[in-house]
Amino acid sequence: xxxxxxxxSSEAVLAQSEVxxxxxxxxxxxxASDTFGDRAAIGTSFQGAGLVMIHHxxxxxxxxxxxxxxxxxxxxxxxxxxxxxERFFGCRIESVHPELSLDEQARDFGAGLWNTRPDxxxxxxxxxxxxxxxxxxxxxxxxxxxxxxxxxSGAGILERYLFDxxxxxxxxxxxxxxxxxxxxxxxxxxxxxxPYNPLHDKGYRSIGCGPCTRPSGDGGDERAGRWxxxxxTECGIHTFLPAAS
Length: 245
Ligand code: SF4
Fold this sequence. Notes:
A hairpin with a 4-residue loop joins strand 5 (158-164) and strand 6 (169-174). The chain has a single domain, classed as HUPs (Rossmann fold), CATH 3.40.50.620. The protein is an alpha/beta fold. The chain contains 9 helices and 6 strands, in the order H-H-H-E-H-E-H-E-H-H-H-E-E-E-H. It is globular, with a radius of gyration of 17 Å. It binds iron/sulfur cluster (SF4). Iron/sulfur cluster (SF4) binds at residues 71, 73, 114, 118, 121-122, 125-126, 208-209, 211-212, 235.
């Protein structure tokens, strides 16, 4: 199935998703690379699933671009990990930044926006930068797993979204790790000695920005340590795009 058909048809996406759900991870990534070239890219915040995907891509000789959203509020351990992963995988990891510096954000929206209006903070520092990066892509490859939380339990391998309603532009979201369990991810990481965020060994099961991430302990929702004290469970990068009909 060619790329234009997929971008134009939800039925075609469903059929391709069915095919991909039976394929090994490396084959799913190869399909994205072969079909879309550098218009397919891996977006990662260096959670376990992202590391497994990048490792499979590198082992398979795929040159899929890799990018991360650097909000300016990441833990020092996360920034250090990014450099370590570049060396380990031998690939560049592009940092995508918000338009506003933290000082400019404080000037325009008030200091500590993450404490007062975290949705606005995520919009400025995550969602809008991501949208800019997605503008040059046809496929966004994510590490979303169904097991992570209730809000992610319905994630499919391949999804089609209306990315820009005004321009009627669609994008494909590829979630090759959708059916992977947390145990399988970590077994793979340890088996292959892949560098990971040391905060995971301190009780942080899902790691985002410093001000909004707490250790979450064992059991239950893996993302329970994110935005504690708020109803918020997602930053918006996986929910801002309405599903296509
Ligand atoms: S996770 Fe917190 S600090 Fe990071 S962009 Fe969202 S609200 Fe701001």
